[in-house]
Design a protein that fits this description.
By secondary structure, this protein is of the alpha+beta class. It has helices at about 5-15, 20-35, 40-45, 50-60, 65-80, 85-95, 95-100, 120-150, 175-180; strands at about 210-215, 215-220, 230-235, 240, 250, 260, 265, 275-280. The protein has a four-stranded antiparallel beta sheet with strand order 4-1-6-7, with no helix packed on it. Helix 2 crosses helix 4 (about 50-60) and helix 5 packs across helix 6.
Length: about 300
Amino acid sequence: MDQHLETFVMQSEAESPIDGTARVGMELRQVREQLGWPLPDMAATLRIRLPYLEAIERGDLSALPGVAYQTGFIRAYAQALGLDGDEILRRFRAEGSSFAAKAHLSFLAPIPDRAVPTGAIVLLSAILVLAGYGLWYRHTAAEAKLAAAIPSVPTELAPLAVPPKPPAVPSPITSPATAALSAPATAPTVAPPSAVVAAPVAAPPAPDLVIQASADDWVEVQDAKGNILFSKVLHAGDSWPVPDMPGLVMTVGNAGATIISDNGKASAPLGAPGIPLHNYQLTPAIAAGTSTTAPPKTN
């Protein structure tokens, strides 16, 4: 700082009737005016808001945001004027007690740990139980109402109703020893010599032709007169035995999944997967001029 500025500050300090921080701020304003620097230009140069610099020159430090901002703003402003920033701060502290006052932090009192009353827990549990029972009762009543609304089978349709299948009663397993103990103590009977032992019933012969499906496949079979004998979707593993009739024709929706088994020997698929096949001759056609019925017998 120049010698004449120091002298000016010292004279102002001795002659000014203003005391406290207002006198220190007034001295800063006098130095700035002596230098010919407008206060708005100082605010723009220091990047400090103009109302804060005006408050410093008035000595009203309560208008500044806080103690930290007060220290920074005053030191920067004093150094911009060519003064000793630390000395100006010391004078502000010496002249005003509000500058040195520290901010007091008020902490919130901790909320006491309040346990939930036992009565509230019991009441809440009772409400939940009652609500659950109400939902169950409402659901049961709705099902009973729906069952009552279903009409019974009319009298004229009663013969068509499927009767309930009785449960199968397992036959008791008896061993030879058990059978001997349970048999009545009677004299053994001997079958007469003329008794004829019935021959076991032979199983029907397996069909020669069987339609088999390796995937989902719609199959329809017609006889020689165009009557539909079979029309159904066969799934993988399903099969249908072809009756021993001449002139049977088959139409399928998935030739790649259709296999014909002749006497247990499976053929290759009848076509490509997903391709339909129409009028496939399953059995030999009826010769022209012949009849499917046997000729009448002559005497």
